[in-house]
Amino acid sequence: MLVMIFFVYYFPFKQIFGISPPNALYSSIIAMSITQAAYTADIVHSAFLNVSRRTIMGAKALGLTERTILYYIKLPDIIRQILPAEIAFFIGIIRLSSLASVIGASEIVFVARTSITQNFRSLEAWIIVALIYIIMVLPITYFARKFENSKWIKRKW
Amino acid sequence: MVEKTTILRCENLHKSFGDKNVLSDLNLTLHEGEIIALIGESGIGKTTILKCLNLLEYPDKGSLFYYDQIYFTDSKPIFEPYELRRKIGFVFQDFNLFPNLNCLTNITLGLIKILNKSKTEAKDIAYDIAKKLNIEDVLLRYPESLSGGQAQRLCIARALVLKPKILLLDEITSALDPKTTRNVIDAIKEIKHINSNQSVILVTHLLKFATDFADQIGMISDGRIIEQLPAKVFEKECKEAKSKEFLKYYS
Predict the structure, then answer these.
(1) A77 within 8 A of A49, measured Cβ to Cβ
(2) Which of A121, A137, B5, B196 is the most core-located residue (most Cβ within 10 A)?
C-alpha cells in the first residue's frame, strides 16, 4: 500500500503522458483504488470458482437461463462468501488511509500531527482521531451485518 | 398396434473423458409415454448418457433428435441448450437443490422464470404437487434441513412442475435407505398418475423397480446398449453374456 502510494505520487506522468501529476490527495485515492480493486478482484474470483458446480448443474438442468442462474443462484452464494473478507479489507483500507500522510495528503493523521506540533496536546488529538475512525467504521460493520442476514443472502438451516 | 411417435432419439453418440471412452456408438430411441430403464455396472457411463441427452455434457460425436428436430450435431447444439432442457426434466442422484432458497422457492423458481407464472399461481402449483408427493409440510424449510427422501422428492417435484415431456431419473434411490427408497419409488409411481403419457429414462440399480415400473430395460456395457428388451421378459429372455452375469448378482 505504502509502495503503491509512493509509486503513484512519484510516477513520471509529465514525461510519459504529458499530463500534470496528481496532487497528494488524488495520488492516495488512485493508489488505494488500485489496491482495493486488485484484492477485490481476487476475492470475487475465488468466490466465483467456489460456487457449487452441482447446484449450478441442478439449475441448468431445469432450463434456467445463465442470467437467472447468476442472479438467483450464483450471486447470493458469491456475496455470502466475499462479504466477510471484503468488509475486513474495506475497514483495513480506511485504517491504512493514514499512510497517505507520508506524501503530505491532508488526511486525519496528517492534520492531527500538525495540530500536535502547534499546541502539544497529543492525547486529545489522537483520541479524536480514534473516534473519527470508529465513527467511520461502525456504520460499515452495521450495514454489512444487516446485509449478511438479508433474506436474499442468508442460508438457513 | 398404432406406431408411437418417437420423442427422443440419439444416433452414434460418442463421449470420452481424456483417454477414457465412456460412450461409443450409443443408439437409443424413446417413444412417447415409454419408460426405459438403463441398468449396468457402476462407472460405465449411465449418468453420462443422461447428461448428454440433456446437454449437461456435450457428446464428442453423434446426433440428438427431439421429435424430428435435430438439436445436437457436430459437437455443438443447434439452438440454446436451455430451450431443450426445459422439455427434459432431470432428477439427480445427489439432489442438487438450491441451498440459498427455501423448498417452496426451489419449486417455484422454475415456474416463475420459465413458465412465466405469477407468484401466487406458482405457489398453488407447488403446494399441489407437494401434496401428491407428500412433502407439503417441509416446503417452508431449507433444503439442508431435509432428509434424503424428502430432498429427493423435492427434486422430483422441482422437475415435474415444469411439465417436461421427458424425465431423466439418475439413480435417484442409490443414496437412500430401503424404507426411504420405498417412499421415493411410490413418489415416482405417482408420476404415472399425474401424467400417464410421461416419457421417462431412468438409471437404476434396483432390478425389481425397473421390471415393475419400466416398459423396456436396456443393458449398458462398453459404452452402448448391448441389449434392449421389454421389461417383463428381460430376466428370462436376455441373451448377452454380460446381462446374464449382471442378473446373477440379483438372484
Answers:
(1) no
(2) A137
